[in-house]
């Protein structure tokens, strides 16, 4: 019988959260084990999320721009998507990141076990090989998986997931997209821009229901302009395979029974935590109603020796949040001083066109906390740089404390919103005021200078 191997910290999952925790623990001279039985190391972001999706989305954006010669005044043959070439480029991009992550995990700083492991007790992990690892502390960072809702007939048809879309080497002539969240909207626009005829079926009354309504409206207008059929307030009923190998989608919309026939059904209804509920329950690890692992502000679960970080813990499935959670969990688990995780400065970006980004607290959150605030916004269709770029769809908005002018939140829907939002992210994190930001130079003509208009409007209402 092999002797039990002992560690200060055992990390289940080598993605963004797990690697960040392992690296941080090693820097504190801890003995660390990383257990990851995935076919390829790297985690969701590198392999099936951020990097591959944004690589393909950017290719489609360039294709879309290349087709705008009549707008910008140049002649060109009609550009056409070559999915095989796009995939080749995507594989090269993510391959470099994946190789680097694998090198980091296997460079000797940690004991890397390339197999699956499950919690055997509050201090033990049993590997598929039969080995038992013992850890003073254990971190669960097992990520997420595609969410498959219990809709009649869905399991009987050959639907596609985001993994399938990201690996496409051909352009489907048409497709039906289920969902109107971030993944569904980003990849629906990608499919439309490479040449597919796209229909979006969204259960909520608007796209991107967690984001500002104005941003949702801007995106819907752009998608419609690009030929995407967007149906919201849809009640999905049933799915049936047809004799020709296609799929019949039955739903209610506007009080009427409807259906669509498709040969490419993309299930874009999001992801759910990848957790083993049975083993967690027997050990006393509590879950939230959403299925995420319940943690405190130091990522500690209901079992003191067990921590959780990343997508399996939530509440925000974002890479930089997963990294912060992993680092925080490792430091707290090893007894080092660390600030608790908070989300008042949360930054998020949606890589559609127009891009949508927000940081800090929304007006709804400010109202719920009883904070008095001022808001101001400005549209891109009245801004010099965006007009000359034909990027006139969208707006920026700033929310500041009424008494002091401290910037508490901001949002942006428009060209390169994911880049523009960082100016306000710095402001929110440093608790800068609108008056302080207006002391900075804002170059003309740039997209960034659009922030000065709402900043000035708020500053005029607050005495220095």
Note the topology.
Layout: E1 5-12, H1 16-27, E2 32-35, H2 43-48, H3 50-66, H4 69-72, H5 83-105, E3 111-113, E4 117-121, E5 124-127, E6 132-140, E7 144-146, H6 162-166, E8 174-178, H7 182-193, E9 197-201, H8 213-225, E10 229-231, E11 235-241, E12 247-253, E13 256-262, E14 265-267, E15 271-273, H9 277-283, E16 306-308, H10 319-333, E17 347-350, E18 355-360, H11 363-368, E19 373-379, H12 384-388, E20 395-401, E21 407-414, H13 417-429, H14 434-437, H15 452-459
Parallel strand pairs: 1-2, 1-6, 2-3, 6-16, 8-9, 8-14, 9-10
Antiparallel strand pairs: 4-5, 5-6, 7-15, 11-12, 12-13, 17-18, 18-21, 19-20, 20-21
Features:
464 residues; alpha/beta; FAD/NAD(P)-binding domain; Enolase-like, domain 1; 15 helices
Tell me what portion of residues adopts beta-strand conformation.
Answer: 15-25%
Roughly how many Å apart are the termini?
74 Å
CATH-defined superfamily of the largest domain: FAD/NAD(P)-binding domain
CATH topology of the largest domain: FAD/NAD(P)-binding domain
Q: State the low-pLDDT regions, or none.
A: none
Q: How many structural domains?
A: 3
Query: From the coordinates shown, what is the CATH architecture of the largest domain?
Result: 3-Layer(bba) Sandwich
Largest sheet: 7 strands, mixed
* Overall pLDDT: 93
Secondary-structure class:
alpha/beta
CATH C-level category of the largest domain: Alpha Beta
What Rg is obtained from the alpha carbons, in whole angstroms?
24 Å
The 3D shape can be described as globular
**Roughly how much helix do the residues carry, as a percent range?**
25-40%
DSSP strand count = 21
Number of helices: 15
